[in-house]
Amino acid sequence: MAMDAGEIKRLIEAGIPDAQVTIQDLAGDGDHYAATVIAESFRGKSRVQQHQIVYEALKGEMGGKLHALALQTGTPPN
Predict the structure, then answer these.
(1) Which residues in the chain belong to E strands, given as ranges?
(2) CATH number of residue 44's parent domain
(3) Domains contained in the chain, number
């Protein structure tokens, strides 16, 4: 069973409370998504660390219910 965009967004926002999250279904199949996650709490962290925080928020669903996620992360402008 695939995850829907709302569930992905909810998990990320629950794990990263200050995040602004945008989810896009890339293929229209409920299996391939793109996520943009912007959070002040990412400031000072490397891109790899930012991605790890997002994956942690997804509670291990990557590779299971969530097949593919193209991820972009960053911090809000000052």
Answers:
(1) 20-25, 32-38, 68-74
(2) 3.30.300.90
(3) 1
Residue 70: how many other CB atoms lie within 10 Å: 11
The Cα 11–Cα 8 span in angstroms is 5
Ordered per-residue pLDDT tens for the chain, 78 residues:
577 889 999 999 999 999 999 999 888 777 788 999 999 999 999 999 999 999 999 887 766 677 788 999 999 997
Distance between start and end Cα atoms, the chain:
40
Long-range contacts made by residues 41-44, C-beta under 8 angstroms, separation at least 24?
Answer: 41/16, 42/73, 42/74, 42/75, 43/75
Q: Which domain holds residue 20?
A: 5-74
